[in-house]
Specification:
Layout: H1 2-33, E1 40-45, H2 49-52, H3 67-79, E2 83-89, E3 134-138, H4 149-156, E4 160-166, H5 168-181, E5 185-194, H6 198-211, E6 214-216, H7 218-224
């Protein structure tokens, strides 16, 4: 009698476990089916009013001139199925989460920069955010530092990242270096990146090329990717 009960219990448990595994597989498959797959991502860095517009708190002199190239590159990327990712800075009004050298911009009545809800935090009008684009917030130079960017890109199967935005010695270079260190094929689109002066841009491109980072024009990006 006991053996019969045990056999029936084991049968019921096996059936329950099998049903549970099927249910889990269904849920996992459903989640994966909703995840976009893209081998290439365009990372647009800090193209916000405070960095691009002359009225911005930390305007980069060369940034506004790159808007048409970035918009063109984004449209090209969308046509190729790339994932477009807008990287933006956001800081608390009290500057608690800002880089130490920029804390003075948040004290003594100063408004700071890239504070959510302000004009300065908004992406410039010339670079529209379209359906399917993603937005990732960062607090430091690199778009990978303590953000979800790497997690998101790996889930999507991204192998190559193309970088655009501002500015070369800080956020572009920091992001490029981390992308290379994380084993992404790293491409900097030189027509779509900026610095305060051409000399600063040239020096950083020179260094990044020597590091093994591809720094190429918009035309070359389109011809090779």
């Amino acid at each position: 009698m006991a053996d019969a009960i045990n056999k029936k219990f084991i049968y019921i448990m096996k059936k329950f476990i099998f049903s549970l595994l099927v249910a889990l597989a269904t849920v996992t498959g459903s989640a994966q089916s909703k995840t976009k797959v893209a081998e290439t991502a365009l990372i647009i860095i800090d193209m916000q009013n405070d960095f691009v517009d002359p009225k911005g708190v930390l305007c980069v002199a060369g940034a506004a001139a790159t808007i048409p190239a970035i918009a063109d590159l984004a449209d090209y990327g969308r046509s190729k199925g790339w994932q477009i990712v807008h990287i933006v800075r956001e800081h608390r009004p009290n500057g608690l989460d800002v880089d130490e050298p920029r804390v003075p911009l948040f004290v003594d009545g100063k408004p700071g920069y890239c504070v959510p809800g302000t004009w300065g935090c908004e992406i410039v009008p010339g670079i529209p955010v379209k359906e399917g684009d993603m937005r990732v917030v960062k607090f430091r130079n690199s778009a990978f530092f303590q953000t979800q960017l790497d997690l998101i890109l790996r889930r999507m199967g991204v192998k190559t990242v193309v970088l655009a935005g501002t500015q070369y010695p800080n956020c572009v270079r920091g992001t490029a270096n981390d992308a290379m260190s994380l084993n992404y094929e790293t491409v900097v689109c030189t027509d779509a990146c900026s610095a305060k002066t051409p000399a600063v841009a040239e020096a950083n491109v020179f260094d990044m090329r020597n590091m093994g980072i591809k720094c190429i024009s918009l035309a070359e990006v389109k011809s090779k990717y």
